[in-house]
UniProtKB/TrEMBL annotation:
It comes from Chroococcidiopsis thermalis (strain PCC 7203). Residues 27-183 form the Putative restriction endonuclease domain. This is Putative restriction endonuclease domain-containing protein.
Amino acid sequence: MVLLNDLTQRLQADDPEEKRIVTGVSWQHYEALVADLGDNSGYRVAYLDGVLEIVSPSRRHEKGKTRIGGLLELFFLETDTEYFPTGSTTFRKEESQAGGEPDESYCIGTEKDFPNLAIEVVVTGGGINKLELYQRLNVREVWFWQNENFSLYHLREETPSQFQQTFGYERIDRSEILPSLDINLLAECLTNSNPLAAAKDFRQRLRSQFSKNSI
C-alpha cells in the first residue's frame, strides 16, 4: 500500500520545474529572446541588471496560479470590484533594467500600464529577487504563494529606507489594495484538493461574510 506522503513525493519527482540563470545578458538580447518566445511560450522569463532567469513551470505551479486566479475572480464578482486581468504579460522598463512576467497580475479600479498586484507561485527557490524586480516596475503589491501560505508585501515609497532589505516593500497581513479580502480564507480554500468544491465553498463564505456586513 502506497502511503499518501510517498505518493506526493513521487508526483513531485515526476513533475519537475526547471530554472536556468544566465548572467551578462544585454537588454537587447533579453528583448530578442522575449520576442522569439512569443505569447504562447510555456516559459516564464525575468530580467534584472543583466541577469536572465528562465523557468519552465511545473504542473503544480500552473495549477496553483490558475486556482488563485479563479478564486480571485469570484471575489471580484461577489464584491463588485472593478478589475483588469493582465495575467502573465511581459512588463519591462529598459531605464530600470528590469522585466518580468508574473504568474497572475491585475490592475484594480482602472486599467494601467503596470498592474497594482503581481502574484508569484513559488515552487523552486533561488534566482532573481522578485521584490527588487517589481519595485523597479512600481508594482504596488506583491503576493507570494509558497508551501500553501501567502506572503504579502506592499510598496512604501514614502518610507523606503525602513524596508531596505525588502526593496521598499513592507510585509503585511492584509492586502491594502483589496482590504475586504480575507487572505486566510483564500489560502484555506486553495488547500482543498477539489477545485470545484473549493470554489463553491469560497463563494458561499464570501456571500455569508458580505451579507452580514450589509445588515
